[in-house]
What does this fold into?
Amino acid sequence: MTTQTNNPSRVLMFGWEYPPYNSGGLGVACKGLIEALVADGVEVLFVLPKRIPVSNPPCRFIFADDTEELVTADGTPMLLSAYLTAEEYRVRRRQYGGGGGATIYEAAARYAAQAAAIARAHADEFDVIHAHDWLSFGAGLAAKEETGKPLVAHVHATEFDRGGGNQINEYIYDIERRGMEGADRVVSVSQFTKNILTTYYGIDERKILPVHNGINAAEYAPEKVITDRVVRLKEHGHKIVLFVGRLTLQKGPDYFVESAARILEHEPSTLFVVAGSGDMQQRLLRDVAAAGLSNKFIFAGFVRGAELVQLYKAADLYIMPSVSEPFGITPLESLINGTPVLISKQSGVSECLANALTVDFWDVEEMVNKAVSVLRHPGLRNTLVQNGYQDVLRQTWHAAADKVKQLYATMVQVT
Amino acid sequence: MTSVCFYFQVHQPFRLNPHSIFDIGSGKSYFGVSDGTDLDNQAIMNKVATKCYRPMTQLLLELLERHPQFRVSFSITGTALEQFRQFAPDVIELFRALAATGRVEFLNETYHHSLAFIHSPEEFTRQIRMHTEAMEEVFGVTPTVFRNTELIYNNDLAAIVSKLGFRGMLAEGADHILGWRSPNFVYHSRGDTALPLLLKNYKLSDDIAFRFGEKTWESYPLTAATFANWVNSNHGAGDVVNLFMDYETFGEHQWEDTGIFSFMRELPTELYRHPDTRFATPSDVLADHAPVGEIDAPQYVSWADVERDLSAWHSNEMQADALRSVFALESDVIASGDEQLIDDWRRLTTSDHFYYMCTKWFADGDVHTYFNPYQSPYDAFIAYMNVLHDVQLRIDEIKARRVNGEPVSLRKVT
It folds into this structure.
């Protein structure tokens, strides 16, 4: 089999989701990176575990559950189900991880098993393998083992972020660690995440390259604004402070609620809007009610698209009090929509936003100090937005793709 | 004959504590943090005194001793003097020794190195008077030449300064007010005022102040002989070379290991190699040379940044808001009669507070970041506005006492 060519810019990339079928930022990040890589002259073969309709694919997509794409070593088409006997699945499961019985683990393990065949079938068409997050790490390792080609493990989030200080899932931690150890290079979405990888996973810091995510500001351009309850409240002289994110420990919604109570002592006509859902919702509702602040809070549930844009636009301040945020795209969305941001220092995005207010997530007093200052002083608000928007415009996928492309080049020795 | 006119600016602001909203009304000091950080005024004074004020002033005394015709000039702010008095009184003695030679001129400026002229000509005038009194009291001299904060200048300022009886004023020799003309002559302000002006030769001044230790500079390392040649090449093309710079250039901005002290030690000798070079103070120059032309400056010029305008202190909405807000309190503060309150308020008019709020090129990390003791311009603004809020509470308290016929509070804050 051919292995190396004179064109190092060909990559077999394993993802897990893709817009609009995404549950979070991973799909959006993959799309942004792929589009910019392709524009930069990189050939991308993008693999997803399940077939989904992709309206305007920027590159060739392969769906691991499609049988017709797969061929055996001698070129004969074969069925994936035939490939994976019960015994083989068990073996591969041991090899690449699997078990626990939960669907997502099995799906990740199955993906890993399919990846070897995909890599073999397309071996002549790529020089580098690139896998995004633990769900794809098994697939990346399998492809590397099958073809001997170098692997980039791209970390968008770790088990330590998702846990938000809680007990971590050892099983996922192991997959993450093995993925990074087995990879030739690791890309982290921030310096903040790089520090987690060296500290908690023992990964050699020289192996890790931080590459900040980009954002296509145009995709978040103002959509038509519908006047709803929130906007009307604003017309009555209320200031609005916004939280957007899953209601889980990682995102720090409890610090938002704690700050809100103290912000109200200084700026009583403030309203707090919580956009998101999650396992902490009941607890937060109870806390707010217990503090007698239910009339100061709007729990908007999960909000996306035009409605979310409208919330950003209505808000006077966006707070992201995340306990651990590998990157964090929402502050950039907020700035695009003209709302200043107060973000936790425990976030990757704080590394790219010079013109943001930053605070340690646990420092409620300082959070209150800064939030109240923004609500009180239009000069502060406007300066943060004007300059913050310039920061956002600098945060392009093109810059990210450029770093990744250069990384590929160092990994493929041209012969 | 070409005169070399050195003027050194000595200034230290009273930097604010990181004042939070929870400190408003708490009686916490505005200026007194002592944690060794970049906001610790005492720690900074100790550092700069050791690196610059003591060694450089000793060096100047040595040069005055060795060269009987050597002359320089200074402007020392009131806020710097107060901090010398508090933290490094021996430095005042060194400056007194300079004054005693009779060959060092002391210029006038606003006591608080303020931007009062933007919003309040009255307060501007009061701070100028305060500075004159301080110079008389500390050095026994009455300044006759004025220099404004950061060499900020325009036609209106010249008119005020002229009315106050000063015989001349210093300004930046900015291209946009000079045009094709050389800074190496005495000029005068726009016709109706005709105040004599000395303009900074920014090329030669900045060679020392900014570029001296810059290893990538084509003229690095700059020797006294080379620099003297540059100055002396102006013979026949000017009356005076005005070398205006921060005193902290020597040892603080340009560290000792750049060779800045030996450079200055040798410079008079090298300059004297040309028989027609002499040293002069601003008053000497004004006595010897009549203005050769008019400077029309409808817009502000200053010696800061490449723009050489007000933008370092007055370009974003935070700065505008903060400046407006501090001067909005002026009449109430002055009317309070509370000396402590008035003093605290005046310290808040110092230009540095607004400089720290500057966001020009903040993202790229440049000179503004280097000279900013706060983590960000936003932190500087928040601390400042919280302090102003506290000042407002003190005003309200005093007013309430007046209404109730109680004695005016003299709540000690510093």
Remarks:
- Chain A is about 45% helix and 15% strand.
- The first helix of chain A runs from residue 25 to 39.
